[in-house]
Amino acid sequence: MKVIVPVKRVIDYNVKPRVKPDGSGVDLANVKMSMNPFDEIAVEEAIRLREKGAATEIVAVSIGEPKAQETLRTALAMGADRAILVTVEGVVEPLAVAKILKAIVDEEQPGLVILGKQAIDDDANQTGQMLAALTGRPQGTFASKVEVSGETVSVTREIDGGLETVSLKLPAIVTTDLRLNEPRYASLPNIMKAKSKPLAQKTAADYGVDTAPRLKTLTVSEPAKRQAGVKVADVDALVDKLKDMGVVA
């Protein structure tokens, strides 16, 4: 079974984003970038499925600027077999990403597509669901456990009420949650091997997809700074303070 794993290049999760002075977006100049953490989990899960004999080939896919090659090389160093980079300048919205992935799925015919439930830069949480709708494949989102057996995949989902397990007929779409696994570090030998693994370069036009944005960002601003707290002597004083703030009647 072939597995496709989409990965996204985002600001490293240890870096505090800075807003541009004109409020037009996030400042990416001289900022450390890395693979989206949820996508790292997806790559790791695909590798584990291959180690169990459930998968035979792992194809990493990234959609974005040419520098996304670095992210794909990371996926290859972790254990992906080959990669596809679809070069697109500027911001690519989830729907355009899903349409490109749909074209790749039609071309590659994978048994499973595993992707992070969301990217930490926009937190949209839309691409996996849109891809499932476009391809007509069953979906298992927010996966904390994935088990492939024959022609089905069992996905344990994290929901508000606890856990829900769904059985999906392959081919299917799965999005990963944080508790699915802990991604491995790429070893130095694998990093060197990744440089020689095949990485195909495409454009959105090759797949006939229009990536023009449908949304317009009016302004971007940092969250309001948290105000200092106030100490109170007892519960009665706390209730009075909350009444003064209009929190309780």
**Protein structure class:** alpha/beta
CATH superfamily: HUPs
Rounded average pLDDT? 93
- By CATH reckoning, the class would read Alpha Beta
Distance between the termini: 61 Å
Number of strands: 13
User: Largest sheet, if any?
Assistant: 9 strands, mixed
Shape field: globular
- DSSP helix fraction: 25-40%
CATH architecture: 3-Layer(aba) Sandwich
How would you spell out the order of helices and strands? EEEEEHEHEHEHEEEEHEH
Task: Report a brief summary of the structure.
It holds the Pfam family ETF. Helices cover 27% and strands 29% of the residues.
What does this structure look like?
This protein is of the alpha/beta class and 249 residues long. Helices cover 27% and strands 29% of the residues. It has a single domain, classed as 3-Layer(aba) Sandwich (Rossmann fold), CATH 3.40.50. The protein has helices at 37-51, 68-78, 94-108, 127-135, 188-194, 235-245; strands at residues 2-6, 9-11, 18-19, 26-27, 33-35, 57-64, 82-87, 112-116, 139-149, 152-159, 162-169, 172-176, 199-203. Helix 2 (68-78) links the parallel strand 6 and strand 7. The protein is globular. The mean pLDDT is 93. GO terms for molecular function: electron transfer activity. Its cofactor is AMP. This is Electron transfer flavoprotein subunit beta.
